Amino acid sequence: MIRNRTLASALCTAAALLGVGVAPASAQTSAASTATAAATSCYGGAKTLTYHYQAAAKEYGTYTTSSRCNDINLRLITDEPGVYLDACVVFVDHTSKCNNGDAYTTHGTEWGTVATDVKDGTHFVLRVHAYDIDAQNVTFQIAY
Question: Which one, of 134, 142, 133, lies nearest residue 80 by Cα?
Fold first, then answer.
């Protein structure tokens, strides 16, 4: 009799969970896997470059965006704390000025967006300058 009650209790619990719409763990991990795969394919094609300190901004490129990334992303590869680079994108077929109202954004070791929602096949130059004099020789990556 106890076995039947235990089984009945387990069945009722399972039915209740299905009734309230709790997604199975496999469905929850599937959505996370899709997001991770998209980021991996974008960042997996990242190009590694090195910035050497100079007074004026340095330009890298011309590059062409692809379907691999929706944005143009940048991150520093450094172990030194407090080192940052300022960056912007110049869409060379349309202008000689930086995006975002000719403004730079500051980037560290986490992936950050330099330009968002960029169409595939867009030609651009990455313009970089030191945040301060700590950025002497800085290796960084761009993904686009």
Answer: 134
Cα dihedral 131, 66, 95, 60 sign? positive
C-alpha 53/C-alpha 24 separation (Å) is 52
DSSP β-bridge partners for residue 58: 128
pLDDT in tens, the chain (144 residues): 444 444 445 444 444 444 544 455 554 555 555 555 555 689 998 999 999 999 999 999 999 999 999 999 999 998 888 999 999 999 999 999 999 899 999 999 999 999 999 999 999 999 999 999 888 999 999 999
The Cα-based distances of 61 to 38, 43, 53, 70, 117 in angstroms read 24, 18, 18, 18, 19
* Contact (CB, 8 A) for 137 and 93: no
Beta strands in the chain (DSSP E): 47-52, 58-64, 72-77, 85-90, 105-107, 112-115, 123-130, 137-143
Structure tokens at 44: 């997996």
Read off the pTM. 0.70
